[in-house]
């Protein structure tokens, strides 16, 4: 059976999107996803995203496999791509510019903006150690500027769950961080029982930061939407950032706002269709 797919990216964080609306289980296994994501022997992507029927009164459900076949709860760049993909699939039948999407990390709401960007209500960040999850602190305490030994060095880390888990550390110069060496050591550190996404942040101004990321299950990527949101939260909690800032990633900028009114995170950025194809 041939399966149609569309390749999208959000700032170079790239995904294979599959119309899975006629079934509540992904039509591709995690093992097949690993093969499709391979950049030499497959299509090449950071993950495979499925558009499934909505659950609990939502419009649709998003599920995603990382390029290593693991299943994360959420993906920020991916949900912008999913919003654009759904609008394409619905075509003239589209009734709204906004979708309520069920994910394993909670309900997220991407909205297609008139300028082609996608703005997403990413929900309220969770900050307790037990919610990350991490054993750095007792389960009912936050993890803000806590020392963590990784690769023979002590890093001050702040942990934030944006549906998926993030560990943020602030550095002088992101360009000097040997991501491919220390990224895996953060990801597999025993204090993170479900592994971790790790963001290194250089604060240029309170409203402009540079970020590099090592993603759980995908390694170095050009952008991470949930990571950008988690990093802004960490920047506010440690008095380094304004509540609204541009996060500059290797693939380009995301605008992130942590609303004082409803305490929710809002992420605005692009979602680009690249090509369509068929998997035999
Ligand atoms: N790139 C994504 C995050 C994808 C999931 C992540 N690798 C995880 O395992 O949590 C984003 O844009 O948020």
TrEMBL record:
The active site is at residues 75, 224. It catalyses: (2S,6S)-2,6-diaminopimelate = meso-2,6-diaminopimelate. The keyword RNA-binding does not apply. GO terms for molecular function: diaminopimelate epimerase activity. Coiled coil: none annotated. It is an enzyme of class 5 (isomerase). One of its GO terms (cellular component) is cytosol. It comes from the Bacteria. Pathway: Amino-acid biosynthesis; L-lysine biosynthesis via DAP pathway; DL-2,6-diaminopimelate from LL-2,6-diaminopimelate: step 1/1. GO terms for biological process: lysine biosynthetic process via diaminopimelate. PROSITE patterns: DAP_EPIMERASE (PS01326). It is found in: Cytoplasm. Keywords: Amino-acid biosynthesis, Cytoplasm, Isomerase, Lysine biosynthesis. Substrate binds at residues 13, 66, 76-77, 164, 197, 215-216, 225-226. Its main location: cytoplasm. Pfam families: DAP_epimerase. SUPFAM superfamilies: Diaminopimelate epimerase-like (SSF54506). The record marks 166, 215 as: Could be important to modulate the pK values of the two catalytic cysteine residues. Belongs to the diaminopimelate epimerase family. Catalyzes the stereoinversion of LL-2,6-diaminopimelate (L,L-DAP) to meso-diaminopimelate (meso-DAP), a precursor of L-lysine and an essential component of the bacterial peptidoglycan. NCBIfam families: DapF. Homodimer. This is Diaminopimelate epimerase. The gene is dapF.
